[in-house]
Amino acid sequence: MFLGGSGSQRPFDDAVLDGVDLDIEGGSTAGYAAYVAQLRSHFEASSDKKYYITGAPQCPFPDAMLGSTLNSAWFDMVFVQFYNNFCGLDAYPQGFNYGQWDTWAKSQSANKNVKLYIGAPGSQSAAGRGYVDASTINSIASDIRSKYTSFGGVMTWDASQAFDASSWGQSVSSALKSGGSKKRALEPLQGRFISTRSANVTAGAMQVKLELVEGSDVYISDTENTFGFHVRIQSADQPIRQGWELHIPLPVGVSVAQASAQAHNIRVHDNTLVVVDGSSINENMAVAFRVAGQHIGNEFGLPDPAKIMLYTTA
């Protein structure tokens, strides 16, 4: 009725939603994990569109209604309601418990790369408590963004009030798009990528080589539906002494459910592996990846080195 089906009764006519959000605030806690699993099976059977499953728990941890489901089901994003509770935005910083949710995301969530969003009231009348003005929420979001890699953005309840004459929504949106005062600026290493198994880039006097390693460094498991590869980063003359990000587009048609790189923060965004590290790159290092999901196995080809991007932080 709402997604990619072809039923005759469609409330939004031919519009197709991007996914399903679980905002469960009453009733039973049973059945939601199975519901998410069933939705996932339908989504994976469709190659026409990317679908998302999100949850909207209240900030007291664990959430009374969604707690067990969040631990067992795969969520792409979680919109934590930091309002109408003691742990809301009006309790920042001492009583604000984003850190608790960050720990959950990285240690208990089925999706260890799940993104967390700060749920905020869009106006005084949108919630009983927890509203803060645009300047305050922008400052809080900037602080959280600088401390936690799980930060995904700001969710507001609701858009009709957030984007009214008060311009609260416009201000928050602009601040997030600009990166906020504490977000590290990214500067691409300038150079020409060559369409081979390696790519050479330069930044001033620095020369860096990105190389996809095959042979014994690559593994495929049909039974586990997983694939792995290494990216070697070689700095010919001097190490990269700042933080860096590595963006690796995945082949078309591959749906990655999990990704990991030992000792590095990694996430999947728009079918791209994004590795973030605040340390420096020495003369010769390798980042080893393990990905799992649909259409991996023998159908998974190595990413195109010509499309890999390495960024340094300013």
Describe this structure in words.
This protein is an alpha+beta fold. The protein has helices at residues 32-44, 67-72, 98-107, 134-147, 159-162, 168-178, and strands at residues 19-22, 52-55, 77-81, 115-121, 151-157, 186-188, 198-203, 206-213, 219-221, 226-235, 244-249, 255-261, 265-269, 272-277, 284-294, 309-313. Helices cover 18% and strands 31% of the residues. The strands form 3 sheets. Strands 7, 8, 9, 10, 12 and 15 form a 6-stranded antiparallel sheet that branches. Strands 1-2-3-4-5 form a 5-stranded parallel sheet. It has a 5-stranded antiparallel sheet with strand order 6-16-11-14-13, with no helix packed on it. Helix 4 links the parallel strand 4 and strand 5 (151-157).
Strand share of the residues? Answer: 25-35%
Query: Distance N terminus to C terminus?
Result: 48 Å
Q: How confident is the prediction overall: mean pLDDT?
A: 75
Oligomer: single chain
Radius of gyration: 21 Å
Choose one word for the global shape.
globular
Helix/strand class: alpha+beta
Largest sheet: 6 strands, antiparallel
SSE blueprint:
Blueprint: E1 19-22, H1 32-44, E2 52-55, H2 67-72, E3 77-81, H3 98-107, E4 115-121, H4 134-147, E5 151-157, H5 159-162, H6 168-178, E6 186-188, E7 198-203, E8 206-213, E9 219-221, E10 226-235, E11 244-249, E12 255-261, E13 265-269, E14 272-277, E15 284-294, E16 309-313
Parallel strand pairs: 1-2, 2-3, 3-4, 4-5
Antiparallel strand pairs: 6-16, 7-8, 8-10, 9-10, 10-15, 11-14, 11-16, 12-15, 13-14
List keywords for this structure.
314 residues, alpha+beta
